[in-house]
From TrEMBL:
Gene3D superfamilies assigned to the protein according to its UniProt record, in alphabetical order: Leucine-rich Repeat Variant (1.25.10.10)
Protein name: Exportin-2 central domain-containing protein
GO cellular component: cytosol; nuclear envelope
Cellular compartments annotated: Cytoplasm
Pfam families: Cse1
UniProt-listed InterPro entries: ARM-like, ARM-type_fold, XPO2_central
Domain of life: Eukaryota
Keywords noted in UniProt: Cytoplasm, Protein transport, Transport
Biological processes, Gene Ontology terms: protein import into nucleus
Signal peptide: none
KW Protein transport (keyword) present: yes
Residue span, Exportin-2 central domain: 6-107
Amino acid sequence: KPHLDFLMYKVCFPTICLTADDVELFINDPHEFVHKQNSPLADFYDPSMSAITLLTDLVRHRGRDVTQQLLAFLTDCVNRYAAATDESQKNHIEKDGALHAFGALAEYLLNMKKYASHLEGLLVTSVFPDFNSPIGFLRCRACWMVQKFSTVKWSDDGTNLRTLIQLVLQR
């Protein structure tokens, strides 16, 4: 228990984040980047997938100890990104890592009423803007997030869903 913070935030989270090689691959060969990210064999050789598996297992089996704190950390990452006024202050890789972790926890979050009610807000404030991001891998992550949270319950009159459809179709 005393080592969970170190394990989650100093080991797992940095491992989940894209590396400089990943960013370079996205820029030079986006098709290969997407293939690598979605490869079923990645579970066996990609340290990022091992870190994701560890985080999801911790949330499933030690939920009371880690879930609230982990979600607060991830939310802080995306909020820092949104609050940055200068483009040079925005940590694109950290935001992508936070969204990757949120997406990996999608099944758990969607099944817990306590968290499910906040997912629409996460999508609207942190994912929708990325469809128009100049950063390609954030646009890619936005599409992935929409797929992961495709069963979210929309609370409004359909405005957010229509906005999402327009964002997806304009690309």
